Amino acid sequence: MTRPDRAGAAPPVALCDATVVVTLSPPEVIRADLVIADGRVRSLGAGERGPVTRDCSGTLIVPGNVCAHHHLYSALSRGMPYALLPPTDFTEILQRIWWRLDRALDEESVRASAVRGGLDALLAGTTTIIDHHASPNFIDGSLDVIAGALGELGVRSVLCYEVSDRDGPVRAAAGIEENRRFLREFRDLARGMVGAHASFTLSDETLEGCAEVASDAGVGVHIHVAEGAVDERDSLRRAGRRVARRLAEAGVLNERALLAHCVHVDDDEARLIEETGATVVCNPRSNMNNGVGHSPFNRRPGKVALGTDGIGGDMVAEAQAGFFRARESDLATPPDWPLARLAEGARVAGERFGEPLLGTLRPGAPADLCVLSYDPPTPISAENLAGHWVFGLAPGRVRDVYVAGELVVEDGRSTRVDEAAVAADEVHVAGRLWSRLEATPVHTYDPRREK
Ligand SMILES: [Zn+2]
Predict the structure, then answer these.
(1) Secondary structure letter of residue 78 according to DSSP
(2) 140, 257, 276, 451: least CB-packed within 10 angstroms?
(3) How far is the CA of 159 from the centre of ligand 1 (A)?
(4) Which residues make beta-bridge pairs with 369?
(5) Are the beta carbons of 110 and 75 closer than 8 angstroms?
């Protein structure tokens, strides 16, 4: 869906008397009036008022957050029924929960999930979602449905379809084609990557197909890597080499690749990933919830971003939980741990949009920003921003959100959609989705079996 460029026609807006986080990493914090014009930050300074002014005293204006690994399709799963034996390992979590939910999704529920997930993210100050989508019984056109839903909300996104062989060769081919098709079309606020599930559900041929589509389009492959130990065991059995080596030989690892998790990679794989320039996305809450372990990339600097892996869209919550998890293992974890990772997520999104200033509020940057009701009792500066971020910020502080210069959340409410109507609709959609889910059997694909 292509939205009209309303922001371009809007008069300049001055956000006045705020504390502005110009950059997250390295932190830069100033007191300023921030002027938005033509969808971008026009200026930062004192007294630069436009025809429209908004009082932002007592607020902290921050760059909009980027969730670098999300699964919007899970947005209607909260509280869903579960009548099976509890899963005992990561494979069973997939077989009994997520690979049943994704097969129950249809067009209606894909759309409603994207609306709910996108809305939750925006209301938490997340302005870009890098999503990884799976709906094996509704593949063709699924990315358009998601892009349309997110476009209506006014949230920026980088989308892909999760290619996998677990549901057979026809669906694997359809998944590759969905990525290829989506990458050909231009949208205002959405871009594409090539999605791939994980080494342990992908044949060499399918992996190479994904790499080829990505190479042709000049984008990266977005893939789960060694989330569970089963991925490494499968790769050793299947290919005689560990996951990162296998992906490198298939042409997946390069500077545009986005690798979610990397929990079970060994030192050799970690070095290989860094040498290829790929970006790793850590998802600490998801890893804790699935009991899969702790990514060594939590302790490595460089191209490491943060995602929720579908546990909502609140990157302040994710950053705080991840920081505390990292500190639990290593007291040397510096306070700026979350800021550096959030900036990396913004870099990835900025590269897909051709916007190197995305994730900053420097003049010329896309005006993707969040106005937080945050008036701390202690001074705030570049030197102590990390401490405020980890120990001061909290859910519910988001007042206003701008994406590409447009006010899409005002006083904590969407300006684009009727939230009550959305909620009234999704409860019915969720009921139908849950009924199909209950009728969907446990997935029989089992990478633990000897091949
Ligand atoms: Zn994931």
Answers:
(1) T
(2) 451
(3) 13
(4) 63, 402
(5) no
* Encoded tokens for 134: 């799976």
Domain assignment present for residue 429? The answer is no
In terms of Cα–Cα distance, which of 324, 259, 329 is closest to 285?
A: 324
Q: Report the distance separating Cα 134 and Cα 227, nearest Å.
A: 17
Q: Are residues 138 and 70 in the same domain?
A: yes
Going from the Cα of 366 to the center of ligand 1, the distance in angstroms, rounded, reads: 27
Domain enclosing residue 339, as ranges: 65-353
CA dist list (Å): 101 to 184, 202, 432: 29, 20, 12
Query: Could you tell me if residue 275 is inside a domain?
Result: yes
Whole-angstrom CA distances from 394 to 170, 274, 389, 433 are 45, 33, 9, 32
Q: How far is the CA of 383 from the centre of ligand 1 (A)?
A: 34
The rounded Å distance from CA 61 to ligand 1 centre is 30
Place of tokens 């009792």: 377
Residues 131 and 278 in one domain: yes
Measure 381 CA to ligand 1 centroid, in angstroms.
35
Distance 223 CA to ligand 1 centre (A): 8
Q: If you measure from the C-alpha of residue 145 to the centroid of ligand 1, how many angstroms do you get, rounded to a whole number?
A: 20
240 and 126, same structural domain? Answer: yes
pLDDT digits (tens, 9 = 90+) for 105-119: 999 999 999 999 999
- What is the CA(334)–ligand 1 centre distance, in A? 26
Instruction: Tell me, in angstroms, the distance from the centre of ligand 1 to residue 53's CA.
Output: 41
